[in-house]
């Protein structure tokens, strides 16, 4: 059973107050323009037939109930086999079956364990071919605007079917409908532009329209024909009352119409009707409603043509509407992307929101905007004051944690909003981030509108028994609506979703940037601590020595020239020491400030320039530098050259072998100690030497500024800034470093960075 269709019959008469609960798919009656035979699929036995079946099949006997098709109507047996193979509700129609009567069409389907055979006249004189209608419709629809297309479609269907009036009826988001195109007889009153309340087509009726492309009502004044019996056993246990259930006529073409709907049509002075469903994404978008002032029924072939037209038109119209929507969405996305890219370059998100307020409001056709986070608010355009915004935020806290909420009448949600509904009436809310990303509030001014109803939608009629019945007048009724804004359309809401996801990406990007900046600040603070230590200790030490030698120079006059020259040499050494320290600080500072210039280069090129800087074309004989493997690199050439210059210099300086051996190469990250960082790919370089090595306990300390593991006079001195500069440059490339050494012989330093796409 479909969940949107009521499962049990109503107790008492059907009236306006309960028609939305009427199980219209199990009426136990059919219309009089045909007959019906119902067969249980499990055992092929006839379980019910319409009271008028003998009028259509003169041989049919009441005693046939309970007997199989093979015993009674063997011609239908082969058709039942085809029906069993089809999906539920799939209609199979046959004109050529020999049933002892001429000019009959049999339509068959199965539903809820029962097989249905519906028989009606085949009026050859009025038949039309499906291709006739579909071909003519599409020949006239190409290259037309949607509204023009709707009108042309209605005119062609009226011409094909011969109905007095044909309308295209579109459902709105609140399920009420309006006539958006109409073709009629000249003397008839126009319904174009009129609105109809949602209750005119209750939920069960809308669901049946979704399940069936076409619905026919041949004569609103004709009596319905009962099914005998009206309840049957689907399981085969015909004796047990609790196994009997109503016959599910969801897909039946002959299914009788609700008495409330019949009364509604009679009040409209309609004698017959037919509806063609227009679906969009499986949901009911609208109806082609056909009305005739006298009884009328199309032949099965004509209905087939209309059904095919409804199916094809649904696909075509959906495609056209989606094309228009997609075109607008592309424009919206391009604008959002363009504007939001500017926000990403602003560190202060509040400032960026203030700058973005005009274009975001324009994007959503809003008249005012508020961004609030915590106690702070940014406002633009027509809004409410801060306390009122606080009331809205408090009310939002009571709502579900949906990302986008909207209303065209704030006062319907917050009663206090009536005080300002003359200024703002509509609200769309976007919740930023997972929790505390802030709220974007978009306001719309009130929009007084006039709705033309087909009769007063709130007016009902009570008969002598007190029963509520449909309105009897469909004369134009004008309703003035105030205190609401223009509604937020589906496109508006999709735009809000797109804006939300894009802004969230900016927030994530800014959070990552803040995290990176904080990480760099922590490193800078550590470096500053080291610098403070160097400034207070390493730099003061030469100053103390200089002060001492100045004193000695002053006394040298009394001790002779030898003491003078000795003091002068000491002073010169201390000045050189201070110069080295200051040079190291300068190089370290530049390594953290300069912009990176990404380019492609080879290892041979960068190693060659590093050698030129170190040796000026005269490499010492005891130094052996070889490139073992060389692949292409992507990075800042000058920075990588600085790294290699420092590493080669250290490999030579901290080496007590007769021949200094230095091996340099590139390697795949998977084959290196940096394999935990696959993003480095093949942008990994190693420098290996045969020097004194670095104890494992000291392999991180050597990268601290001015940190030396030996006495100043050992291994040629130095400032202790070289490896710190190496670390800083690699980190500027978002890279990684690793040291391999047993502390006894040789060191290999690996460094790598992610190549820039």
From TrEMBL:
Gene3D superfamilies: 1.10.287.130, 3.30.450.270, 3.30.450.40, Histidine kinase-like ATPase, C-terminal domain, PAS domain. Residues 145-311 form the Phytochrome chromophore attachment site domain. Keywords: Chromophore, Kinase, Photoreceptor protein, Receptor, Sensory transduction, Transferase. The keyword Cell inner membrane does not apply. GO terms for molecular function: phosphorelay response regulator activity; phosphorelay sensor kinase activity; photoreceptor activity; protein kinase activator activity. It is an enzyme of class 2 (transferase). GO terms for biological process: detection of visible light; osmosensory signaling via phosphorelay pathway; regulation of DNA-templated transcription. It comes from the Bacteria. Its EC number is 2.7.13.3. It catalyses: ATP + protein L-histidine = ADP + protein N-phospho-L-histidine. The keyword Kinase applies. PANTHER family: BACTERIOPHYTOCHROME, TWO-COMPONENT HISTIDINE KINASE. In the N-terminal section; belongs to the phytochrome family. This is histidine kinase.
């Amino acid at each position: 059973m479909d969940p949107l269709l009521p499962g049990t019959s109503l107790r008492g008469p059907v009236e306006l107050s309960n028609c939305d609960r009427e199980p219209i798919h199990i009426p136990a009656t059919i219309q009089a323009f045909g007959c019906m035979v119902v067969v249980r699929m499990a055992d092929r036995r006839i379980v019910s037939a319409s009271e008028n079946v003998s009028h259509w099949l003169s041989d049919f006997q009441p005693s046939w109930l309970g007997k199989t098709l093979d015993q009674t109507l063997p011609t239908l047996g082969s058709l039942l086999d085809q029906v069993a193979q089809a999906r539920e509700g799939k209609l199979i129609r046959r004109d050529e079956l020999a049933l002892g009567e001429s000019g009959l069409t049999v339509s068959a389907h199965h539903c809820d364990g029962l097989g249905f055979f519906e028989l009606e006249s085949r009026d050859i004189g009025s038949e039309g071919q499906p291709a006739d209608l579909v071909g003519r419709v599409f020949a006239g629809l190409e290259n037309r605007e949607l509204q023009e297309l709707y009108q042309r479609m209605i005119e062609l269907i009226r011409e094909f079917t011969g109905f007095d009036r044909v309308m295209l009826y579109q459902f709105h988001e609140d399920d009420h409908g309006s006539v958006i195109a109409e073709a009629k007889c000249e003397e008839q009153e126009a319904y174009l532009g009129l609105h109809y309340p949602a209750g005119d087509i209750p939920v069960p009726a809308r669901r049946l329209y979704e399940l069936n492309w076409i619905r026919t009502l041949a004569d609103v004044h004709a009596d319905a024909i009962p099914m005998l019996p009206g309840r049957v056993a689907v399981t085969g246990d015909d004796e047990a009352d609790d196994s009997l259930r109503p016959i599910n006529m969801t897909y039946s073409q002959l299914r009788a119409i609700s008495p409330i709907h019949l009364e509604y049509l009679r009040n409209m002075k309609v004698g017959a009707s037919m509806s063609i469903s227009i679906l969009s994404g499986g949901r009911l978008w609208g109806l082609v409603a056909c009305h005739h002032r006298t009884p009328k029924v199309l032949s099965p072939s004509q209905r087939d043509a209309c059904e095919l037209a409804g199916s094809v038109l649904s696909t075509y119209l959906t495609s056209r509407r989606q094309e228009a929507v997609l075109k607008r969405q592309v424009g919206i996305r391009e604008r959002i992307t363009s504007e939001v890219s500017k926000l990403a370059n602003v560190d202060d998100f509040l400032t960026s929101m203030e700058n973005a307020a005009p274009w975001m409001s324009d994007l959503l056709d809003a008249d005012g905007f508020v961004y609030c986070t915590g106690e702070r608010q940014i406002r633009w355009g027509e809004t409410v004051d801060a306390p009122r915004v606080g009331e809205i935020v408090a009310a939002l806290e009571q709502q579900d944690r949906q990302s986008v909420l909207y209303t065209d009448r704030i006062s319907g949600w917050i009663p206090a909003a009536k005080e300002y509904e003359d200024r703002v009436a509509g609200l769309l809310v976007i919740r930023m981030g997972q929790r505390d990303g802030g709220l974007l509030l978009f306001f719309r001014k009130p929009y007084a509108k006039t709705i033309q109803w087909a009769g007063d939608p709130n007016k009902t009629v009570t008969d002598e028994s007190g029963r509520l019945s449909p309105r009897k007048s469909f004369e134009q009724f004008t309703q003035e609506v105030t205190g609401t804004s223009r509604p937020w359309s589906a496109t508006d809401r999709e735009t809000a979703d797109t804006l939300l996801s894009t802004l969230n990406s900016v927030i994530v990007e800014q959070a990552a940037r803040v995290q990176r900046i904080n990480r760099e600040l922590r490193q800078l603070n550590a470096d500053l601590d080291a610098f403070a230590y160097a400034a207070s200790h390493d730099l003061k030490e030469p100053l103390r020595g200089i002060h001492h030698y100045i004193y000695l120079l002053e006394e040298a006059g009394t001790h002779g020239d030898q003491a003078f020259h000795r003091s002068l040499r000491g002073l010169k050494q201390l000045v050189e020491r201070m110069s080295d320290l200051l040079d190291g600080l300068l190089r370290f500072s530049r390594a953290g400030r300069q912009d990176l210039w990404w380019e492609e280069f080879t290892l041979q090129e960068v190693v060659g320039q590093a050698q030129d800087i170190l040796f000026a074309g005269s490499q010492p004989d005891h130094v052996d530098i070889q490139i073992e493997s060389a692949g292409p690199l992507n990075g800042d050439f000058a920075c990588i050259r600085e790294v290699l210059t420092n590493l080669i210099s250290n490999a030579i300086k901290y080496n007590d072998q007769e021949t200094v051996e230095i091996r340099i190469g590139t390697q795949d990250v998977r084959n290196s100690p940096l394999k935990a960082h696959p993003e480095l790919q093949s942008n990994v370089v190693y420098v290996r030497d045969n020097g004194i090595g670095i104890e494992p306990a000291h392999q991180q300390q050597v990268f601290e500024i001015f940190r030396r593991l030996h006495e100043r006079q050992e291994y040629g001195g130095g400032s202790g800034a070289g490896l710190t500069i190496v670390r800083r440059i690699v980190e500027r490339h978002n890279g990684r470093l690793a040291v391999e050494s047993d502390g006894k012989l040789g060191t290999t330093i690996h460094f790598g960075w992610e190549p820039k796409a």
